[in-house]
Please model this.
Amino acid sequence: MSSLNKLFIEHCDKKKFEKNINQIRIVNLLSKFNSLKKSFLSLFFKADQKLGFYLYGGVGVGKTMILNFFYNNLDIPKKKFHFNEFMINFHNFRHKYKDQNNSIEKFVKNLKKNCELIYFDEFQITNIVDAMILGKLFETIFKEKIKIIISSNIKIENLYKDGLQREQFIPFLKTIKKNSIEKQLIVNVDYRKSDFNNLDRYFSLKNSNNLFKVNRIFHDLIKDKKRTIKILNVKGRNVKINLYYEGIAKFDFKELCGDALGAEDYIAICEQCSLIFIENIPIFSNENIDKKQRFITLIDIFYEKKVPLIITASAGLKNINSSSLLSQPFKRTISRMYELTSPKMKI
Model:
């Protein structure tokens, strides 16, 4: 048994997690992945020296828990990114050096100075601009011998499956497939959901009493707090929080996902808020798919930033989605909403 496996079993005991054999196998593979070092023999076995580890599986099976554990036990220069933030940084850098032909190489060499490994949690591609550039970007990252670990709900060949101009994305698929160990984690339980049966902060408006309950909670929480209208400047644009009470914010769903807000705006909102109310989340269908996409991004970022939510919605969590489009990433969204509205996510 590797030392990393022993540490993982101790971690499970400490956190009172079930010790799952499939998770332990993944940890063992990560231990081997991390032990790959340059040597004389490696000249003859280059095919085995993968620089990427791509872990995919259903929501709540422990992908993030395992990769967080692995990441936290690495004693090397490293960085963890939410993929949206990483691409924002990349595009900002390219804009700064837009007159130079080697902006991708410059960006990656800059990364190399600060990290030997990059960790992307819950990786997915939804943006055609990102899809077109990722092949060259990741090819350069691997060329610089930067290791990458990735968690995703989707196997590599199905990334950006129904996206526009997917043929532009094929170079990235080939690059990540060639350079990565790809493993599926199968666990027949959603660990995030199992302890969260009492969703005290998710309220379906089908129950007419719930609106009264939410309003009472809101007024109790903002009592003695001063209201301001918070204006956030995001790249020269103003993002307004109309109901802001010293870290507590209240939004209608349309304010967050009805307008053309994106990842940068949601990150800016998170930086100002310790608790967020979101009202009137609709049932998602093919007709409001643009709003569904924004909502997926929003929940991903709120989850990454650990901002607790209080939500009112047109239906219960199990019935909030009636669209087959974006069904895989939305499974993750549902699971994360369970956690963000759970009493275990402390206010």
